[in-house]
Amino acid sequence: MIEKLSSLPFIHWIKHKSFQNFIFLAVIQSSNVLISLISMPLLITSIGVDQFGLVNLALSVIILANIWVGFGYNLSGPREVAINQKNKLALSHSVSNIIFSKVFLATLATVVLLISIFGFGLFKEYQVILAFSVMLLFSEATLPLWFFQGMEKMKLISISNVFSKLLYLMGIVLFIHNPVQAKWVNFLLGISAFSINILLLLYIHFQMQIRFYKPDFRQIYKSIRNNLLLFLSNFVSHIAINGGLIVLSFFASAEILGNFSLAERVTMVLRIFPALVIQAIYPNASRLMQQGEDKVIIFVRKIYFLALVGGLVLSIVFSLNAPFIIKILSKSELPNAVAYLELLAFVPLLACFNIVNSLFMLITDQKKLFFKSSYLVCIYMLCSSIFLTHLYGAIGLCIALLSTETIAFVVSLILLFEANRSMVKKFYKSLMPSF
Asked: Pick from 210, 166, 216: which is nearest to 189 by CA?
């Protein structure tokens, strides 16, 4: 009986490291969302709505700064680790360079923020909160998610992430009781993650026998220079994905802005799906690429079909249930928010079409291509959003965001076809029997 069960196709998929990567990455993302939802009413009760808004404002500044700290290592790191899995010396050097590069970037970002706050008097309403929030930069710098992703051993870091978030939640309950203590909220989030990250780095060193070499500034400079285009790609992609609300703020009332913001927040959670698929299969695809493009194509083809089916199911379910979802989140009837979500729910499906193009650029180390695709899509998003929002308001913005995902697929496909024609032809020809 057990032998029969183990021979079933879905059992094979469950045992596959890429599938396990996807599950553990999903656990990390879902735990982040869940803890955020749990902590929100606790914080509003303890520090008040005004201070809660300032805490989130400081957090939004840190999120932008963390793109700088990450500097594209979330894309290049897993590939380096996956390729050098069996070479401890090369792996140790790669890990050391990435960790120290990110710590250096976090230190630089901290200095710039502190000078901006206390030297130039910027961020006046939330200077102290932002100053305490810089701890989050170092928690980002020491987070070894990219390492475990490349090693395809995600179980430990997913458990660690949940534990750090629970520590943060416990810190809120124990230490945050009045508006004066608002400055400690983001600090608690940062110190909880930082403490767990240090334990993970110790585990990597002692248990997995990865050595940490002294920082060599020449190697750090070389590492940062090599990742510059990936950093810029991440930055412009962040604008393309999250810039819609800013564009709408120039054309719409506060009420429309609030309705759109609610629908967009749901969409941003859904849009994690294609990103998780890429992150889950990226290490294995990078390793297979060393053995030849034919093996990569066979592997990615199966995943691509499943991802499209998953994206389709997600989009249809959330679009059809938009009235129920909005009512649950807002506790009221918001027809405009429902209309926006019914359209925006198809963003993840359209984003799924570009999974393969993005993956191929990453595993072939096409940094210039990746950056070119990102900034062209960003330019299209800004132009189409401004034009369509001016004509049709928030509905126009929804159409612009949907079309942006379509344009992202077309632009990436054209650029990739020009750079690696044989691989692209082989892959898309191999899809014909499947469809």
From this structure: 166
CA 249, 251, 256, 260 dihedral sign is negative
Measured CA to CA, the distance from residue 311 to residue 274 in angstroms comes to: 8
Contact 407, 399 (CB under 8 A): no
In 3D, which of 138, 7, 143 has the Cα closest to residue 62? Answer: 138
The pair of three-digit structure tokens given for residue 372, joined into one six-digit string: 């070119």
- Which tokens in the block code for residue 318? 């959330």
154 to each of 26, 30, 198, how far by Cα in Å? Answer: 11, 15, 17
Instruction: Determine contact, residues 296/285, Cβ cutoff 8 Å.
Output: yes
Residue whose C-alpha is closest to residue 67's, from 37, 25, 27, 109: 109
pLDDT along the chain (435 residues), means of 10: 47 63 80 79 81 82 90 89 89 92 95 94 87 96 93 89 92 91 93 96 94 84 88 86 80 80 83 89 86 86 91 95 85 85 95 94 89 93 94 93 95 92 88 62
Enter the tokens of residue 238: 């962040």
Q: Where are the domains of the chain?
A: 17-225, 229-430
Helix (H) or strand (E) holding 152: none
Q: Are 196 and 168 in contact (CB under 8 A)?
A: no
Alpha-helical segments (H) within 321-393: 322-330, 335-344, 347-352, 355-363, 367-392
DSSP state of 182: G
